[in-house]
Specification:
The complex is a heterodimer of chains A (553) and B (317).
Chain A lengths: L1 H27 L4 E6 L14 H9 L7 E3 L10 E3 L2 E6 L6 E6 L13 H12 L8 H8 L5 E8 L2 E6 L6 H4 L8 H10 L5 H14 L7 E7 L3 E6 L14 E6 L3 H9 L5 E3 L6 H6 L3 E3 L5 E7 L10 H9 L3 H8 L5 E2 L22 H10 L8 E8 L8 H13 L3 E8 L1 H10 L11 E2 L3 E2 L3 H9 L17 H11 L4 H17 L3 E6 L4 E3 L3 E2 L15 E2 L2
Parallel strand pairs in A: 1-10, 1-11, 15-16, 15-17
Antiparallel strand pairs in A: 2-3, 4-5, 5-7, 6-7, 8-9, 9-10, 11-20, 12-20, 13-17, 13-18, 13-19, 14-19, 21-22
Helix pairs in contact in A: 6-7, 10-12, 16-17
Chain B lengths: L1 H28 L15 H11 L5 H13 L13 H36 L4 H15 L2 H15 L20 H34 L2 H8 L4 H28 L3 H6 L5 H11 L2 H29 L1 H5 L1
Helix pairs in contact in B: 1-12, 4-5, 4-7, 4-9, 4-11, 4-12, 5-7, 6-7, 7-9, 9-12, 11-12
The chains are: A alpha+beta (553), B mainly alpha (317).
Protein name (chain B): ABC transporter permease
Keywords (chain B): Cell membrane, Membrane, Transmembrane, Transmembrane helix, Transport
Membrane topology (chain B): Multi-pass membrane protein
């Protein structure tokens, strides 16, 4: 009986050992999957030029695609700067500053195996700029053209060299090119050849629709499966040209979850491993339950943009400076926003190459602010009425209503009587392009539209250059300062990167010294994730590199 | 009966045209830029004007409406501005998900509603009636999104029994009626079922009470008919009105709930509408509203016909 029992035990142990041995290799080679809850309501467009702002670039641009230039996202401490991408080097023509030569990275292939070369660059430039090109797609123009406003054309010099031409000398071009993602012409052509349509335009549209479902770029991630509005599954591109950035996890699943509480619940229940912008009031619970929180200053500004049209109260620099000195930004950060902001002292903060050395220090100094207001003729019995347009929500607007009410209270102590004109986000956005003189401004002399500060045009030029006043671009308040115009010109026409950075720093310092905006906050791109997620570097950028991210088993 | 059906169908035509006109105008008269989805923040007026012309938004409204209606009649609702995908395919996929949710919610809501309603109607003014009525009042009063979040906190976050969001497991591209998918349906379906449950309970309770107090029921009982037979008569008399109420409720559910679908990230028509509004995707918004309105109109038509089939007095009226 004892022997029989022992035999049974031995058999069981042998079975267990076999089972363990069989299971071990499976565990060792188990697929690692990173599941991310995005704030977007839909998967951003996958055909190369994403929609949904920079969240689109973050998830379906920089993952599956590369540009000629890219962003250095490897540091959490230093400002993200432009680095070589699919171009290894570039140079402006000494004789004609509108012509640039880009040397392309050899040995790069698209996910479909076709080669990346000069023809591919020309094809991708023409997809958004050349209206009679077969691959021209109007739906990609809007999200591309104005991010590289001076690019005019592309020409192949040889297989690995391409010449780009701008409408005017523009040293910002390499930075702007981070927004042009290289899609595979071969893959698109295959779809085009198979497409049905009444004419070439219809076939082209059908080809782009098919391409979006089965995309092909050169990026570190490849499209595995795509269910519109539900999920996008990406797998690692083991053959990625930058071996240091071959993804560590096998698969990344992107899930649209526009509601903050739903995202947070999905994280807490273990349904996803990573969420963007968790619900702020859930942060203590997330921390308490061991989830990791990441945040860092983003190139983003939450401002009031002043009207400078005739009769605007903001035409007096003492008033502009007083407003900037009257806001306790630390109080806003620690109180209302639970730490999820960085106080703004300009468009760029110290440490950024374009910060410069402004002499006007933006800080909380109520006494100085009150003094400036009294010098300007205002006081407790004579308040200055200012009206600001804002929205109740919107992309990048953070928490616009409570934040504006905070400003309203703060500025009241410096003799401002702030009136808020709250309108729907898209309407505010439209009004932004129309300018302070337009009836749609509704008499407001400031507007509260947040802005991205990734490149010089986005961050400075479109607001400060007099030629960018409506209807051309976003100089909403019609700033007309010859010094700004000269500095813009200088920065645009300085082609040595270090000297260009210095010129931009000069322009930024001038704008702070002029208190061009009421600078309030920078967003910090908060994200929360499971303790299983490791290797995350949250850079000072809108973007993040998913390649170094690992998942603990 | 055929004449009645034909007359009802003829009535539907002007309703459909009016619905099309209203949903076309609604999205055009609201302020804001229809190209927000594809225009970045710094887009110049020049670029905006160029794209407006490319999408046909610069043409007079009657022309836009005429072209849109003509294409719609051919089954072409245009392409989404935001995604470039055909609107009809987008809407039908979302409607499919909403129908799945509505069916599950209807099964739960109508079953519970009829059950509670009958019990409350048979036991009027007793504690049983009070409990059932309390459920009904809670059902129509409780805010959906709050209940949804509460269920998520309890069953997903705390107990970890059911998924908090989504409509299926990773790697699944279509709905199947297995547990792997059904578990995603449980919480949104319960949340969606609460209002119809409350309304059906109240309706059935009132009808049952009313019918039971009528003379013919007394006559049936006096003739010696068993309670099961009386019950059949109660059901038959209550059915047309209850059916109409349930039809309307089903119509509402097929329209999708923006709040519930957003809370659960359920990719149905409510979620789609939310995206379309958020992105100001006019073709998608118009197409979604039109399809949902048509669903509602045709569902009402079917309910009317069903009512007439059950109760011949209706078609005479």
């Amino acid at each position: 009986m004892l022997i029989k029992k022992n035999k049974t035990h031995a058999a069981l142990i042998a079975l267990l050992a076999l089972g363990t041995a069989a299971a071990c290799p499976r565990v060792a080679s188990a697929e690692t999957v990173l599941r991310i809850g995005m704030t977007a309501a839909d998967i951003p467009r996958t055909l190369g030029q994403p929609d949904q702002g920079f969240e689109g670039n973050r998830f379906t641009g920089l993952t599956m695609y590369d540009g000629l230039t890219g962003w250095d996202l490897s540091s959490a401490d230093k400002a993200s700067v432009v680095i070589p991408g699919l171009a290894t080097e570039w140079k402006v023509d000494d004789a004609d500053k509108t012509k640039w030569v880009f040397k392309l990275r050899p040995g790069v292939t698209f996910h479909d195996g076709s080669p990346f070369n000069a023809d591919a660059v020309v094809w991708n430039v023409e997809k958004v700029l050349k209206q009679d090109a077969p691959q021209f797609d109007a739906s990609q123009v809007g999200v591309t053209a104005s991010r590289m406003p001076t690019l005019a054309s592309a020409k192949k010099i040889d297989d690995m060299t391409v010449e780009l031409t701008t409408k005017e000398p523009d040293s910002f071009l390499p930075i702007n090119l981070t927004n042009l993602f290289m899609a595979s012409p071969a893959k698109w052509q295959a779809f085009y050849d198979k497409a049905e349509g009444a004419d070439a335009k219809a076939k082209s549209q059908a080809a782009w629709t098919a391409f979006a479902r089965d995309a092909s770029g050169t990026g570190p991630w490849k499209m595995a499966s795509f269910t519109p509005r539900e999920r996008l599954e990406l797998v690692k591109n083991a053959n990625y040209w930058d071996k240091a950035r071959v993804p560590k996890v096998d698969k990344m699943v992107l899930l649209p979850m526009p509601e903050a509480n739903a995202r947070t619940a999905a994280l807490l229940s273990g349904q996803v491993d990573w969420v963007e912008a968790p619900a702020p009031d859930a942060l203590p619970e997330l921390k308490q339950r061991g989830f990791k929180l990441y945040a860092n200053e983003q190139p983003h500004v939450w401002p009031w943009q002043f009207s400078r049209v005739e009769g605007s109260p903001w035409n007096d620099i003492r008033v502009r400076k007083a407003a900037n000195l009257c806001v306790d930004r630390e109080g806003l950060k620690d109180g209302l926003l639970a730490g999820l902001m960085v106080p703004a002292t300009g468009t760029f903060e110290p440490g950024h190459p374009w910060r410069g050395k402004p002499s006007f220090e933006i800080k909380y100094d109520k006494a100085a602010a009150q003094k400036l207001m009294q010098e300007a003729g205002f006081g407790p019995n004579k308040k200055l009425t200012v009206k600001t347009q804002t929205s109740a929500s919107g992309s990048g607007q953070m928490q616009p209503l409570p934040m504006n009410e905070y400003l309203q209270q703060a500025l009241a102590e410096c003799y401002f009587d702030v009136q808020l004109d709250v309108i729907e986000w898209n309407t505010l956005f439209t009004n932004w392009r129309r300018g302070a003189k337009d009836p749609s401004a509704n008499g407001a002399n400031a507007t509260n539209v947040t802005y991205a500060a990734m490149d010089p045009f986005f961050a400075l030029v479109r607001f400060l250059q007099s030629g960018m006043a409506p209807p051309v671009s976003n100089n909403w308040g019609f700033i007309n300062n010859p010094k700004f115009d000269d500095l813009v010109k200088k920065a645009r026409q300085t082609f040595d990167p270090a000297a260009r950075d210095a010129a931009l720093a000069e322009l930024h310092a001038a704008s702070v010294d002029d208190a061009a905006f009421l600078y309030v906050a920078h967003d910090v791109g908060p994200r929360a994730m499971s303790p299983k997620v490791t290797g995350v570097v949250q850079p000072k950028s809108w973007f993040i590199d998913f390649s170094p991210v690992s998942m603990k088993q | 009966m055929l004449t009645y059906i034909a007359r009802r169908i003829v009535y539907v035509v002007p309703i459909v045209i009016s619905v099309a006109l209203v949903c076309f105008l609604l999205v055009h008269i609201t302020p804001g830029d229809p190209l927000v989805a594809v225009l970045p923040a710094d887009a110049s007026q020049e670029l905006a004007a160029q794209l407006r012309a490319a999408y046909g938004f610069d043409r007079p409204l009657p022309v836009q409406f005429g072209l849109w209606l003509l294409r719609a009649l051919h089954g072409d609702l245009g392409n989404s501005i935001a995604t470039g995908r055909p609107v009809l395919a987008e809407v039908m996929r979302a409607v499919g998900n909403t129908v799945t949710l509505a069916i599950a919610a209807a099964i739960i809501g109508f079953t519970m509603g009829i059950l509670f309603g009958l019990i409350a109607g048979y036991f009027r003014e007793t504690w049983i009636d009070k409990v059932a009525t309390s459920f009904a009042i809670a059902g129509v009063s409780v805010p959906h999104y709050w209940l949804g979040m509460l269920l998520v906190i309890i069953f997903s976050v705390q107990l970890n029994w059911l998924p908090a969001v989504g409509a299926g497991p990773s790697g699944s591209n279509s709905w199947t009626w297995d547990w792997a998918h059904l578990k995603y349906l449980v919480l949104p379906a319960i949340t969606t079922s609460v209002i119809p449950m409350g309304i059906v309970t109240r309706t059935v309770r009132a009808l049952t009470g009313d019918i039971l107090s009528q003379d013919f029921v007394e006559a049936l009982r006096a003739k010696g008919l068993r309670e099961t037979g009386v019950f059949r008569h109660v059901i038959k008399n209550a059915a047309p009105t209850a059916l109409a109420v349930m039809g309307l409720q089903l119509g509402y559910m097929l329209g999708g709930s923006i709040l519930i679908e957003t809370v659960f990230s359920w990719p149905g028509s409510g979620f789609l509408l939310n995206s379309a509004i958020f992105q100001r995707d006019l073709p998608l918004l118009q197409g979604t509203i039109l399809i949902l309105a048509l669903f509602f109109v045709f569902l009402n038509l079917l309910v009317d016909i069903a009512q007439a089939a059950i109760d011949p007095r209706i078609k005479r009226g």
